[in-house]
Amino acid sequence: CSRSFGLGTRIPWDEQYLVESLSDSSLYMAYYTVAHFFHDGDMYRGSTSLLRPQQMNDQVWEYLFCDGQYPNSSDIPSDVLVKMKQEFDYWYP
């Protein structure tokens, strides 16, 4: 849910809109199911990331969170993608 005023998080690609705060918290919880892959297992230590932000395109997110097709063009190792998908599916069956 989005709007142009009130509480929420601004959408990076269109500052006019906010993601409503309840939707925002739902997105964060989904993200946290795979966040440890970005921080070598420890998001508080500031360790080196296993993945680069550029690798996380729409096709990868669709695969992980929306049961989209496997992103064959991704350069993320297949074992990592499959494990990320399993992590999300475990918490959001």
UniProtKB/TrEMBL annotation:
InterPro entries: Leu-tRNA-synth_Ia_arc/euk, Rossmann-like_a/b/a_fold. GO terms for biological process: leucyl-tRNA aminoacylation. It comes from the Eukaryota. One of its GO terms (molecular function) is leucine-tRNA ligase activity. The keyword Ligase applies. Keywords: Ligase. Belongs to the class-I aminoacyl-tRNA synthetase family. This is Leucine--tRNA ligase, cytoplasmic. It comes from Noccaea caerulescens (Alpine penny-cress).
